[in-house]
Hints:
alpha/beta
Amino acid sequence: MLVDSHCHLDFPDLIADEDAMLANMAEKGVTHALCVSVKLETLAGVIGLAERHANLFASVGVHPDNAEVEEPDEARLLELAAHPKVIAIGETGLDYYWHKDAPEWQRERFRTHIRAARRCNKPLIIHTRDSAADTLRLMKEEGADQPGGVMHCFTESREVAEQALDLGFYISFSGIVSFKNAEALRDVARFVPLDRLLVETDAPYLAPMPFRGKTNQPAYVRHVAEAVANARGANLPTIAEATTNNFFRLFKDARPS
């Protein structure tokens, strides 16, 4: 039993063959997936997937890369987060790779998401790229430890992971952990406590080995879990059980009633 804790199933490469994608998930023992929002203009598609399938969930947020989109305020995020299938706020965060001038609008958007998450008490899904120091600083300043959340698609250092863990956050690994040149990241995967690990695909991006370069899908989260298991000297069932339990512990609104 595995859970894909972060994917974008509404993107054209995946939604075009929705039934096959879900069948592949089931065949590989991937029982649930969290469909993550990147902008409000496409949120209806994300929530629609979650409404159509009992084993899919949704988040509400605007990705830090997206500049020319509807800018959310706290009230709007709270309104949208009230939907019963919405279990998280995000993805949100900072990305200085694409925005090298470190724009203030990006930091203000991140603050807005953290404040909304605090008010609705739903976990944050945090994206950080070339911006770890500011990401952690804003998390601390805005009290992100209150709702908690996950550092998604983690590619940062052990020191960054340690600070995020100290704030009560979970660390999620994507297919990158399976890449040949990712030994430093596998060191982080060995360091993170078992009860704070999550696995994800970030589909349709970042397909793990042996599918690197192809369209990713939730079924491939099994290969991510295998890479984490190998790095830790553990077996797949141990990682599968832990990451599944961790998902439902963090995302409380996903728990069966």
